[in-house]
Protein: Tetratricopeptide repeat protein
Organism: Sphingobium fontiphilum
Amino acid sequence: MRRALCLFLIASAAPSARAEVFEMNGHFPARWREVSLARSIGVDRIAGRDGAALALAIEDRLARTGPDGAPHYDLIALTRNGPDADMIVNGMADATVRDSNVKRQKEQCVERSGDKCVRKEKVEALCLQQTVSFSSTLRVADSGDGRILYTETRPQTDIIVTCPGDKDQRSPRDSIRRMVGTAADRFVDDITPRHENYRVRLREGREGMDKATGQRFRDSVKLSQRDADAACAQWADMDRALPGNASLLFNLGLCAERRGDYGVAEAFYTRAGQGGIRGGEFREGVERVRALTVGRDDAARRARQRR
C-alpha cells in the first residue's frame, strides 16, 4: 500500500513553470486498504505516558468530515460489553527528554551607548540541549476475527537548544504536543482514502514526427490548456495518421484518465511504453490509473454502505 501514496505524490508534483499539464481529480485508495473498507472504528486504550493524548488526537482527526461532508468512519465509543466497531485501534506512545550541555557561538552586545548597542561580538555560550524522543506504535485489529490489519511504529526526534538570553524558548512539552499531532495525522492518512486534485505533465516530445506533424502537435499541446477536448480530438486524429507514437499515445492516455476511462488510459500508457522511448511517466501512468480504479470502486462501495 505504500505504493499508492507514492503514486499520489508523483501525480501531484508541481511541473516546471513552462510545462503544460492536465489538472484532474480522482479517488486514491488508502495505503492500508482493508482497514479503509470498514464502516466503523473505535479507539481503545493507547498505553504510555502520551497514549491518552494520542488517542484523543486520533479521535479528533477521524471525526473530521471528508469531501462528501461526512467523516470516512463512524467513530464508535467502545463499551464494556464488547467492541461495537468494525475496527479497533490500540497501541502505545511515549516520549523522553534527555538534557545535556552544549557550547554555541552567540552574538552579544559588548559596547553600549545609553540604551543602544553599538557593537556586537560573537562569544561562546554554554547552552542547554534537550533531545526529545517520541515513539508511537499503533495497530488496527478486525473486531470480528481479531486479525491485525495494520501495525506501524514511528519514532520522532526533536532537539531544542536554549542559550542564555534567548527570547523565543520552546519547551519539550510543546515539542511532544506537536509530535502527538504528527503521529495522529500520519495514522489517519494511512487508513483513509483521498479524493484529490492532481496535475500530470503532458508529453511534448516530437520524436518520430515529420516537421509538419511536429508543428501541429506542438500547437495542439498549447491548445490543450485552453480547450482540452479539442486537443484530445486532434491527438486522436494524429494517432490515426501516425499510429504508435509514444507522445500521442501518452497524451491520449491523459485524455482518457481525465474522462475517468481508466481502463482505456491504462491501455494507452502501456502502448506508449512499448515504443522503445525511455520515460518513467509511462509506468507511472499505468500504476496511477490502476490506483484510481481501485479508489473509485472503494468510494462507490462506501456510498452504497451509507444508503
Remarks:
- Confidence is low (pLDDT under 50) at residues 1-17.
